[in-house]
Amino acid sequence: MTTQTHQTTQTQRATGMREAFVHTLADALDRDDRVALVLAAISADRFTDQLRRHPNRVVDVGIREQAMIGVAAGLALTGHRTVVHSYAPFLVERPYEQIKLDLGHQGVGAILVSIGASHDDPATGRTHQAPADVTLLDALPGWTIHVPGHGDEVAPLLTAALATDDRVYLRLSTRQNTTPMPAAPGFTPLRHGGLGVVIAVGPVLDQVLAATEGLDVTVLYTNTIRPFDRTGLRAAVDSSAPAVVVVEPYLRDTSAAEVATTLRDLPHRQLNLGTRRDSELRAYGTPEQHDAVHGLDAAGIAVSVRDFLRVG
C-alpha cells in the first residue's frame, strides 16, 4: 500500500463513526432540550454551532476530565440526558473514580462516547491508547457497552441510548468493517458450522471473517457486548463439546468470565483474543502493525483459531 493510498484509507475511516456521532448528537441537541453535552476540549471544534446556540446544555470544561464527569452527573441530576465525549483514556481511565462515584454511586446515567479505541492513532503515543477501557467499565455495575463496527451502526445505537436514562458506553473507532451490521442487542449469526463458535466484537469482524474462511465454524457478530448475550451463545454452541473463541478489539480475556458463566454447566473450551496483557508495546507504527503484534490481524487470528480447533 502506498503512503498516499494509506492516508486516503485512513481519512475515509476517520470520517466514519466519529462523524456519524457528531451529526446524530448535533441534531439531537437542536431537537431535544433534555439532551446535554459535556466536553473537555476534544471535539469542541465540531460542536461550535451547538456551543453557541445551547450554552446551558453544551459545556466545554477545558482539559479537566474529572470535572467533565462531575458536570455530566450534575446535569443528569437536574433531568438532562447527558453525553460526555473525549479520547478513551481521558474519558474512562483518568476520571474513573468520578465515573464510579458521581454516576454509579449516585445512581444517575450518562452516555460516554469515546474515540481512539485501543490503538487507532499510534502516532500520538501511549497517552491516547486505552485497551483496558471496556474491562474497567465492566468492573462497575449497570453499564451497557456498545462497540460498533461501522459508522452506520453509530446513529441507531446513540439514538436508542438517548431515549433511556441508563449508563452507556459507546466506543468509537477509526477502524471499521466493510459492511454495517444490525445495531441490535445480542449476537447476529453470520455463518454456521460444527467445529466451534467464533464471536467477533465490533470492528474486528472483517478480520474474523477472513481468518475463518473455509472453516466449519459458526461466526457471531455483536456491537453490544454488555449485557452479554448468554441466550444467543447457548443457542449457537454444540452442547456436546462447545468450543468458543471471542475476538475483541480491546484487552484480551475481557469477556472470558461471561463465556464461562454462560457455559458453566457444560464442559467446554474457550480462547480469548484481544490486545495483549503480557507486555506493553512501546512503539508507534501503524494501527495495522499494532494489530499484527497483538495477533488481531486476519493472519494472526487464523493461526490462533486453527491451533485452538486443531485444524491443519
UniProtKB/TrEMBL annotation:
Pfam families on file: Transket_pyr (PF02779)
Domain Transketolase-like pyrimidine-binding: 15-181
Domain of life: Bacteria
EC number: 2.2.1.1
GO terms of molecular function: magnesium ion binding; transketolase activity
Keyword Transferase recorded: yes
Gene3D superfamilies reported for this sequence: 3.40.50.920, 3.40.50.970
Database matches in InterPro entries: PDH/Transketolase, THDP-binding, Transketo_C/PFOR_II, Transketolase-like_Pyr-bd
UniProt keyword Transferase present: yes
EC class of the enzyme, as a word: transferase
Keyword terms, alphabetized: Transferase
Name of this chain's protein: Transketolase, C-terminal section
Organism: Actinokineospora spheciospongiae
Lineage: Bacteria, Bacillati, Actinomycetota, Actinomycetes, Pseudonocardiales
